[in-house]
Sequence to fold (231 residues):
Amino acid sequence: MTQGSERRVIILASLSPFGRGGKRECFVDPLDPDRCIKVPRPGYEPEALFRAAPWYQRWRKKVDDFDKNFRDWEVLSKLEPQSDIWRHLPRCHGWVQTDRGRGLAIEMIRDHDGQISRSFKDYLWTEGFNDAARLAVEDYVTHARRYPLATRTLVLYNFAAQVRVDGTVRLVFIDGLGTTEFVPLSLWSRSVARWKCERKIRHMWKQIKELMAQRERGENPGRWGFLLSRK
Fold:
């Protein structure tokens, strides 16, 4: 895993993002289709968010605290390269320079057929909560209890659902790393980290139940969590 910054400037201007979140856009690296580059959306650069924040947030926070890429990098860069913890995380390739500013390069998660993996929300909405989905959640929950990483809420669209050749699914947590705690007790206390992990797992199951109920009623699933392209 590379923790430094690559000197080349990657041009994204002529490319369309395959994914878009509230504050970031995701592009296929034009030089390596097995990498994804995450950059801030226009108007959501960390410096702009810092300037727009209330004074009390600017007083106790740094610019990097408004950078979701930095939060991801801060967690991923500290993990042991050979650890089993990576089973549900994307590999991090460090910082890259783009015409959109600094970007974070991470592993592109693709299905067995080469298509970009859908979010778990998208998978559930399309396929339903089938046996593959249930086993994938159970596997992730077991893993999360063993490795209670600092994460924000386990939102369903923050997972990529990688479909393997045999139809099984691997959940990869691709967004939402780090903590927003003012006093990061979960980073200092393993018991607090485990308690928070259990709370997030319960919330994850609740989201699945609610999404499947929406699907059953034929409601609109909302705009977030669906890819713009799978190529």
